Amino acid sequence: MNLKEILNPRIFEIPDYDQAHVTKCWQDPVIRRQMSNESNYAPIEAVQKAICEAAKDANYYAEDPSYALSLREKLAAYASVKAENVALGNGSIEVLDLIFQIFMADPGVDEAILLQPDYSAYVPRMTYFGWKIKFANLSEGLDKAADQVLESISDKTKFVLLSRPNNPMGSVMPEEEIRRMLETGKIIIVDEAYIEISDEGTSVSDWINKYENLIVLRTFSKGFCLAGIRLGYMLADSEIVRLVNRSRHIFNVNLAAMRAGEAAMDHLAEYRKVFKKMANTRDWLVDELSKIKGFMPIPSQANFVMVDVKGSGKTATECVNFLLEKNFFVRSFAKKAGLEPDTHFRISVGLPNDMEELIEDLKAFI
Q1: By C-alpha distance, which of 131, 106, 94, 100 is closest to 13?
Q2: CA 40, CA 57: separation in Å to the nearest integer?
């Protein structure tokens, strides 16, 4: 049987999204997980309890996410929008998948614009759905991003997608650049996965009330310490929400995830203390990395720090391999498009004691 004759040909254009590093860490719990921007803090006790309590009702379907008004109202209040502006997903990446589907009308012709560098998971899914991708290179910096995007826009452009704070760099595009893009009338999708760890006032979620062409993505995987639960949401014009809900699977968000989300919203004051801990450790990590000869950490507003090691006499690959020997699994960006080869690696911010040990190891290595 020749599968190429009967399958969607675009499935052969995308690489496997390699997540073997996660399995490696589950198989060897001694390894500190500083590679996937998870939280090394467990969920708060009230959320853990809500997840366990959900097991008692697991014989029933959860509310369909089109309804789920209690959770959606709490999320709306948190994001300063209305419940009709909220759509739920099995992680924010599923919501993004749905967006890719509903906006695609002419595969191979419809265009989308991405920044470079940006989150690596965007490209494979967009390729599969048939998007023609244009890249706006960020070599001039985020404060010049709108210029790069505007040069790339054509009459075939459907949307611009960007992470803010940027993944993998951790920096934040200025508000004025977002406004300039929105004024084109094109759909602008802002992925706010790390918004809980960024400076207060960074989010553009309440702009949904003004711009019908703005979509904001959020997740519980980072600041809320719930990567394994898979809960994300979209903030958008109510008509876009309605059409995204029409295109998704029924019951796509499980009962434990919904209960966890509600409990998190009910205990925001407690979670804000966790956000602060993460941000403080991140800022300490940037400061300590900058003291290592030849290291240039990039100031971050996310739960990770990207490090340029070009002046250290070591390659990024050497640093990554050394830290793995010390049971720290960090992420190599040796081959990342938009970055000079083998000069960058990224550290997901962990618990303070672990970060102190990591710094001492790197000092000794360099």
Answers
A1: 131
A2: 29
- What is the pairing mode between strands 232-235 and 296-297? unpaired
The answer to whether 363 touches 330, Cβ cutoff 8 Å, is no
CA distances from 152 to 106, 114, 157, 166, 271 (A): 19, 10, 9, 19, 40
- Cβ(278)–Cβ(197) below 8 Å: yes
CA–CA distances in Å: residue 264 to residues 16, 24, 72, 80, 306: 33, 29, 13, 17, 29
- 221: its two tokens: 């995987």
Asked if the bond preceding 9 is cis, omega within 30° of 0, the reply is no
Omega within 30 of 0 (cis) for the link into 117: yes
Written as tens digits, the pLDDT of the chain (366 aa) is 899 889 999 999 888 877 888 888 889 999 999 999 999 999 999 999 999 999 999 999 999 999 999 999 999 999 999 999 999 999 999 999 999 999 999 999 999 999 998 999 999 999 999 999 999 987 667 778 889 999 999 999 999 999 999 999 999 999 999 999 999 999 999 999 999 999 999 999 999 999 999 999 999 999 999 999 999 999 999 999 999 999 999 999 999 999 999 999 999 999 999 999 999 999 999 999 999 999 999 999 999 999 999 999 999 999 999 999 999 999 999 988 778 999 999 999 999 999 999 999 999 999
C-alpha dist (Å) from residue 31 to 28, 75, 153, 243, 304: 6, 34, 44, 43, 17
Q: Which domains does the chain carry?
A: 3-43+269-365 (3.90.1150.10), 56-267 (3.40.640.10)
Q: Which two tokens stand for residue 183?
A: 């004024």
pTM of the model: 0.96
Nearest in space to 333 (alpha carbons), one of 195, 171, 221, 167: 167
- Cβ 265 vs Cβ 250: under 8 Å: no
Q: Where are the beta strands (DSSP E) in the chain?
A: 32-34, 86-89, 111-116, 132-137, 157-163, 187-191, 214-219, 232-235, 296-297, 304-308, 328-332, 344-348
